[in-house]
């Protein structure tokens, strides 16, 4: 993948969809390509992606979208689709904050592309939360020229062109005004480091109620639910790397009260169970399994940005 002006070549990651390998994937007519921006844009964006379904008579295909506490935008270029049972036509689709796994159904011949924001970034971009996947009316596209980007994407057939077009859009429209407030960012980092929510308030100049309001405002969820999502994400990642691990020990390691509690949480957040996790059945994805390296990279970038006042 060629480098895009002013940045290093985007680093390829596994996508948000189930059963996808790194860089490119083609399985049963489903084609997917994804990149993760580098540099300052990585503060805002988990991934930029392009997907298509080959034209056939076999009907639609279904994939799982795993919870990541983030949100995003889909440019639905060709064909209707449905997410969590919500039918969506062609156009620009605004996604809600992901609080639990959801199923997406793609018809034969579908073409789509999109961008996935880090947790708490989506609100800074759109200024609102959506309670379900929502088609953005062109008349409401005042600030970000999303339908101009949609029209450009629709003329392009190469996934690489989709990635570059959305990358340019992101560089033009994402900046300091979309940054996570410092107090919220510190609280999120402490939760990522497995601090209990009550302890986060003790380490902060804010009260627990103020922290809860910040989370509701920017993430549309409580700190506790954010912690649940991260706990499931880390447990899944561990089970993928240690397929023979003792589940009772895994439950204890990641802060579940017992194995039964872990199983209930898996069903509630990821729509699966720990026994169904394996390297071959569910590969890591940035939305579900961001990984410690990516989390640390984002933390370092935020620190660098504050020191140099980039934006």
TrEMBL record:
Top-level taxon of the source organism: Bacteria
Pfam families given in the database record: HTH_18
Transcription among keywords: yes
Keyword annotations of the record: DNA-binding, Transcription, Transcription regulation
InterPro entries assigned to the protein according to its UniProt record, in alphabetical order: AraC_XylS_family_regulators (IPR050204), Homeodomain-like_sf (IPR009057), HTH_AraC (IPR018060)
UniProt domain HTH araC/xylS-type: residue ranges: 181-280
Biased composition (Polar residues): 271-294
Skewed-composition ranges (Basic and acidic residues): 295-311
Spans through the membrane: none
Region (Disordered): 271-311
GO molecular function, one term: sequence-specific DNA binding
PANTHER family the UniProt entry points to: HTH-TYPE TRANSCRIPTIONAL ACTIVATOR RHAS, HTH-TYPE TRANSCRIPTIONAL ACTIVATOR RHAS-RELATED
Name of the protein this chain belongs to: AraC family transcriptional regulator
Native organism: Motiliproteus coralliicola
